[in-house]
Amino acid sequence: MNDIRVRNHVKVIGEGERTILFAHGFGCDQSMWQFITPSFEKKYRIVLFDYVGSGNSNLNAYTTDKYHTLHGYVQDVLDVIETLELKDIIFIGHSISSMIGMLASIERPDYFDKMIMIGPSPCYLNDGAYFGGFEKSDITELLEMMEMNFAGWASFMAPLAMNNPDPMLTKELERSFISADPVIAREFAEVTFFSDHREDLSKATVPTLILQCSDDSIVPIAAGEYLHKHLNNSTFRLMEAKGHYPHISHPEETITLINEYLT
Prior knowledge:
The structure is a single chain. A seven-stranded mixed sheet has the order 1-3-2-4-5-6-7, sandwiched between helices. Helix content is 43%, strand content 14%. The protein has a single domain (2-262), classed as Alpha/Beta hydrolase fold, catalytic domain (Rossmann fold, 3-Layer(aba) Sandwich), CATH 3.40.50.1820. The chain is globular. The chain is of the alpha/beta class.
């Protein structure tokens, strides 16, 4: 099963007994965790990976057929867990990975001890009384921009999503966006922004911490509150951090809230 390790560029670090599995969001890879993993290395074993199609994963393993819904990404998570024979996992997922992790935990609750969701959303589209933050036309425009001018999309999207005065952080995110395969990135964006997993929330059983940023251009507070209301065993923390990437822009606050929850 060594091919999974290579396929998903799996890395294992840390010295602890308990395992934290970190799962990156859309347009990113495992390097996005670099500011928070050092704080957990002494107490935990840390597993990092890239989804197929992202980072240093094997791009040849990507097929539209497999990854046209989140279930292809769910399978990546389960493959990594089963290859490394992990159990009682603390799963930390950013953005769309929160839902990917939740779906994996619905399929195999026995693998998971706790879930921590950073900037999660069960549905990005506005729908009647539900406020997801985007109209369908917004997403369509975004996808068209990705097709026509990928670099332009990256430089437009990065400052919006990072929402931080430090230009280096925005540049780092833009670099991550632009390093992706444009065709795969556009397909992942479509799968992400048109996903709706509100119906699945009632099936989830693993205790969950929801970390919601206070001013997030991707996920409005209403979406985080909806998630908390419909997810059993969930704890909701509104962060002082702004933007959609608190693990990059506000690592100290992110680390503190994770540690508080885990202890």
